[in-house]
Amino acid sequence: MRCPVCHADDTKVVDSRAADDGGAIRRRRHCLACSYRFTTYERVEEVPLVVVKRSGQKEPFDRAKVVAGIQAAAKGRPVSQERIESLATAVEDAMRVTGHEVTSAQVGLAVLDALRDVDEVAYVRFASVYKGFDDASDFQREISLLAKGTAPKRR
Ligand SMILES: [Zn+2]
After folding, report:
1. Distance, CA 39 to ligand 1 centroid (Å)?
2. DSSP 37-91
3. What is the pTM of this model?
4. 128-152 residue pLDDT tens
5. Ligand 1 centre and the CA of 143: distance in Å?
């Protein structure tokens, strides 16, 4: 961290402590060149993931909702909770790669993509209850893919 007074790069952290209720780290620094002391704050750069619903309403991405959706679809099926959690993580990762703002249809399609390889019954259930598609053709595409007999991998 460069010294704000003499612009030397050689500064030393003399104290670190939690600040802002643990949301930040406050560091006391000491410039080795001019002895100036200054403070820096380190924070997580959190980019929120926003889901745009069909109504146009926006809400923060909620991983728990994805888990609940998969759980409902996989009820009574040989899909472990661990597997469901990892599917939800895969969906969240896919959405974060897509951008800061995704549509509920994109989330639904990502869940379908994830389920297709895991359990055919859960996949069809999710597809049949999923109402978030912006475009009916997305849904048609999924169903026709299934009808073509994309065999789910056995795990
Ligand atoms: Zn300095």
Report:
1. 13
2. EEEEEEE------EEE-TTS-EEE--HHHHHHHHHHHTTTSS--HHHHHHHHHHH
3. 0.58
4. 776 544 445 555 665 566 566 555 5
5. 66
